């Protein structure tokens, strides 16, 4: 494997603050090459701020705490390739202070607990590579870790290998909602995972080529939905492509964490095109034999493409039309409707 070419045009940064002229004026922070996105986050003093990230590559970790509510972080231009936030921590990376390793969540390049977060027109990436660190066994390396209610990503590229996007909740009892629209997400093992109520609309999922001699080489989804939550991960009007050979990947496997063994993972993929990289005969597999995928809430509806062919019906549970009516962005997101914004 080789490190991706993620560097965009522009070098060097300055946090420019457009101070409000009067109370109620929207507050905007501009981040340019040579500055720090985290410094801009730290400068936010209340809800409703916007951080504008100008074209450039920002090699840093960004953490947005819960107190930075209703924050928008967006690229200065619409092209998400232009502004890249990137770092290279992994689960097994030792912390500089010697206190241990980062763990999966701690490896994230971009993390947020803030309710009402909007991220758009950016690339968030973790370029840690297994081949560069054969001594490290904790190979999860997260690009984005989101665990606030009403998290909205639009036109965002999310790049990593294992565990690219961690869609989590603020508490085991919370059903935090997240909405991803027209995003590009790539990885290899479990690269969309977590317990959030997460809707992916018109998104592009891409499985990477992986230099291993076994299959499956990985899985796209690994939901860990709480048993009490009627809705988990929904992918609608999306597509799945692959850089690997045909049938090298599984669509999903259930994740039942050791800290929540009552989890009942839920995944619905509907009205989407599934390419040949997904095994059409057996698209699901187990993470642990004690929690077979057949006992989970895995369903499909009206999908197309060579990876969606139903050759063994028992291996591809389908929703009936009346059931499909209950698996929409509106039912999953409830009274929060980010898709209606203009």
Q: What is the radius of gyration computed over CA atoms, rounded to a whole number of angstroms?
A: 20 Å
How would you sum up the major sheet? 11 strands, mixed
Q: First CA to last CA: what distance?
A: 41 Å
Average pLDDT confidence is 93
Strand order of the largest sheet: 1-2-3-6-9-12-15-18-21-24-26
Proportion of residues in extended strands: 25-35%
What overall geometry do the principal axes of the alpha carbons give? globular
Q: Please mark out the parts with pLDDT under 50 across 5 or more consecutive residues, or reply none.
A: 1-24
Helix % is: under 10%
Number of helices in the DSSP assignment: 4
Q: What is the element string, with H for helices and E for strands?
A: EEHEEEEEHEEEEEEEEEEEEEEEEEEEHH
Structural class: mainly beta
Oligomer: single chain
Number of strands: 26
Structure description:
This protein has 342 residues and is mostly beta strands. 6% of the residues lie in helices and 30% in strands. It is built from four helices and 26 strands. The strands form three sheets. It has an eleven-stranded mixed beta sheet. Strands 4-7-10-13-16-19-22-25 form an eight-stranded parallel beta sheet, with no helix packed on it. The chain has a seven-stranded parallel beta sheet with strand order 5-8-11-14-17-20-23. Mean pLDDT is 93; it is low at 1-24.
Keywords:
342 residues, mainly beta, eleven-stranded mixed sheet, eight-stranded parallel sheet, 4 helices
In short:
It is built from four helices and 26 strands.
Helices and strands in order, then pairings?
Blueprint: E1 15-18, E2 28-31, H1 37-43, E3 50-53, E4 56-59, E5 62-64, E6 72-75, E7 83-87, H2 103-106, E8 110-112, E9 118-120, E10 123-126, E11 144-146, E12 151-154, E13 157-159, E14 165-167, E15 177-181, E16 184-187, E17 192-194, E18 197-201, E19 204-207, E20 218-223, E21 233-236, E22 239-242, E23 249-252, E24 266-270, E25 273-274, E26 297-301, H3 321-324, H4 329-333
Parallel strand pairs: 2-3, 3-6, 4-7, 5-8, 6-9, 7-10, 8-11, 9-12, 10-13, 11-14, 12-15, 13-16, 14-17, 15-18, 16-19, 17-20, 18-21, 19-22, 20-23, 21-24, 22-25, 24-26
Antiparallel strand pairs: 1-2
């Amino acid at each position: 494997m080789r490190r991706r070419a993620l560097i965009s045009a522009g070098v060097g940064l300055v946090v420019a603050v457009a101070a409000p002229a009067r109370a109620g004026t929207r507050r905007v922070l501009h981040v340019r090459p040579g500055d720090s996105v985290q410094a801009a986050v730290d400068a936010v003093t209340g809800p409703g701020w916007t951080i504008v990230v100008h074209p450039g590559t920002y090699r840093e970790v960004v953490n947005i705490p819960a107190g930075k509510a209703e924050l928008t972080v967006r690229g200065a231009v619409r092209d998400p390739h232009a502004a890249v936030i990137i770092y290279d921590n992994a689960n097994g990376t030792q912390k500089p202070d010697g206190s241990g390793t980062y763990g999966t969540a701690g490896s994230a390049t971009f993390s947020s607990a803030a309710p009402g977060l909007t991220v758009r027109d950016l690339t968030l990436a973790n370029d840690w590579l297994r081949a560069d660190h054969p001594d490290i066994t904790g190979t999860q390396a997260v690009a984005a870790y989101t665990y606030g209610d009403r998290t909205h990503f639009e036109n965002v590229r999310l790049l990593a290998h294992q565990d690219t996007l961690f869609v989590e909740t603020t508490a085991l009892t919370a059903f935090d909602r997240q909405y991803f629209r027209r995003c590009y997400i790539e990885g290899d093992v479990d690269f969309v995972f977590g317990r959030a109520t997460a809707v992916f609309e018109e998104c592009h999922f891409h499985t990477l080529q992986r230099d291993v001699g076994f299959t499956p080489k990985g899985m796209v989804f690994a939901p860990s939905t709480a048993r009490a939550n009627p809705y988990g991960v929904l992918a609608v009007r999306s597509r799945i492509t692959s850089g690997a050979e045909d049938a090298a990947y599984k669509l999903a496997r259930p994740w039942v964490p050791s800290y929540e063994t009552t989890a009942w993972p839920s995944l619905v993929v509907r009205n989407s095109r599934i390419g040949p990289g997904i095994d059409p005969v057996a698209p699901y597999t187990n993470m642990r034999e004690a929690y077979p995928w057949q006992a989970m809430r895995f369903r499909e509806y009206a999908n197309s493409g060579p990876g969606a062919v139903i050759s063994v019906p028992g291996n591809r549970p389908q929703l009936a039309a009346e059931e499909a009516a209950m698996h929409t962005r509106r039912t999953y997101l409830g009274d929060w409707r980010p898709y209606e914004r203009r």
